[in-house]
Amino acid sequence: MGAGQRRAADQGRAVAELLLSGEADGVGEVLPGAGPEAWTAFDEEVRSIHRRWYGFPRSNRAEVRLCHPDGRVREGALRAPHPPPELLVIRCADWVPAVREQARRRLTEALAADPVPVLHRLTPLVLRLGRRGQGAWALERFGAELRGSGSGSGGGSGVLAGLLDSADLPTRRFAARLAVEAGEYDVRELARRAAEEPDPVTAGQWADSALAAMAADGPDDEAVDRLRGARIPMVRAAGVTALRRAGRASEAARHLTDRSGLVRACARWLVRQDGGDPYARYRELVADPARVSPYAVTGFSECAERADAPLLRALLEHRADAVRAAALGGLRALDGTVDQDRLRALLDDPSPAVAREASLSLCDSAERLPADWLLARITPERPPHTRRAAYRLLHTRGGVAGLRASVELLTDRDPGLRHIAAQRIRSLWSPYRPPGLPFRDLEVGALLDRCTHLFSDYVMNRMRSQLGLPRPRSTTDGY
Fold first, then answer.
1. Where are the alpha helices (DSSP H) in 93-199?
2. Residue 61: left if φ>0, alpha if ψ -120 to 50, beta else—which one?
3. pLDDT (tens digit, 9 = 90+) per residue, 401-435?
4. From CA 427, how far away is CA 419, in angstroms rounded?
5. pLDDT above 50 (res 476)
6. Interacting residues of 50 by C-beta distance below 8 A, sequence separation 6+
7. What angle (nearest 5°) sits at the alpha carbon of residue 11, between those of residues 162 and 80?
């Protein structure tokens, strides 16, 4: 459950307490437009309060009675003139058959009377309840309504059009799947929706449907260009792949330097299919300082060999920070050796990306780096990115130097470094293995004394025992 869903659930529980204490007049005033999590939490909390607080003042409000622990009370509440639609849907998945049947009759009547607002309002909740043991009925019923023919005010595409832009992600995915199944849109509209959809799963549904439409009816240049210009890499890759069927394979070379590895891989495949050599194109770009780009370097690294390492090493002097960082990453991927002194110098590079890549490249030899040299680079006077890069190497190096650095950073002014240091100190503890520190080392004992707040007394005592260190003397010892 995400943070937004947790907040909604907390809201539902709070409303239940307010309603039962008489501080609220009804859920309609405090849960307007609330999401599914708020309503399911409200239902559970009302029932929980009744069970916890035996003798709690009885309430005749329909909202309370619809969530009562007694099934007879819930069934009676369903005969009220206007029960909240959300609670009506929840009762359709009730564990008491009589309650379910009554709720399903009421929901069927509501759908028959005015389906559009009911479907728009309740589909998100129905999708959540569909995972429950008795929740399939409402999901199937809503699916049938949404699959109905026509685009007017009844069920069908008119309702689907409203759900396709829902802020609720499961609802948007559900509506997209139904629209694709129904063949609601032409290929250009499918491509437009794929390109503009921020959710990768939903965008993938639209993109796959657009490709299927072009496979059946022939290519469409506008649809292909829509896909190629999408924000989500999977959709762009679909557009690049579609270039071949559209007779435009020669345009694939433009995507060899895409920011996504998936798109670059599709572009290389299509260039080869068209008789070209992606490696030669990459090498031409990388060898020209005026034309080289970070993603050209990364793409070249993806199809280069170790013999190409000198070309990447030459780029470590490039004026563009991103190019230098990409060259370091490429050399690491190729296992191309870089002089350790050169990497140590790049750890002080003014570019955060370059310093990060240099630290990653030095991780394999972190134990051979001077601890004092690294510790000097985590002092507060250093730039934040240099401190983080040096601390990564100290942590990789481990031992007393790593623990010393972590303990020093527990009180650092940088909240990010404080958080990382605390996490890494906590990671020392395992009931199945020793912490990887020297045995009976007095400095280790002193450092552990400075981070007792990160562990329980039991864990700290176990760690000390594993390391052969005495337990700290308690002020209550001997009493």
1. 97-113, 115-129, 136-146, 157-163, 169-182, 187-196
2. beta
3. 999 999 999 999 999 999 999 999 999 888 887 78
4. 12
5. no
6. 56, 68, 69
7. 70
User: Residue 235 and residue 15: Cα distance in Å, rounded?
Assistant: 42
Write out the DSSP string of 80-107. Answer: SSS--HHHHHHHTT-SSHHHHHHHHHHH
Provide the token pair at 441: 């080392």
Question: Which tokens is 87 given?
Answer: 């609670």
Residues 269 and 261: beta-carbon distance below 8 Å: no
Which residues are CB-neighbours of 300 under 8 A, at least 6 positions away? 279, 282, 283, 285, 286, 308, 311, 312, 330
Per-residue pLDDT of 319-329, as tens digits, reads 999 999 999 99
The pLDDT > 90 percentage for the chain reads 68
The answer for residues whose C-beta is within 8 angstroms of residue 299's C-beta and 6 or more apart is: 256, 257, 264, 268, 278, 282
Rounded CA-CA distance 131/136 in Å is 7
Other CB atoms within 10 Å distance of the CB of residue 176: 26
**Residue 197 neighbours by CB distance under 10 Å:** 23
Q: Decide: 270 and 244 in contact? Cβ < 8 Å.
A: yes
Question: CB of 240 within 8 A of CB of 276?
Answer: no
Helices and strands counted in the chain (H then E): 28, 0
Q: What's the rounded Cα separation, in Å, for the pair 258 and 371?
A: 40
Least confident of 72-86, 140-154, 287-301: 140-154
Provide the mean pLDDT of the chain: 89
- Token pair of 192 as six digits: 């437009």
Neighbour-count burial of 14, counting CB atoms closer than 10 A to its CB (0-12 exposed, 13-18 middle, 19+ buried): middle
* Distance between CA atoms of residues 226 and 245, nearest Å: 15
- Would you say residue 154 has pLDDT above 50? no
Which of 30-34, 103-107, 209-213, 404-408 has the lowest average pLDDT? 30-34
The three-state secondary structure class of 187 is helix
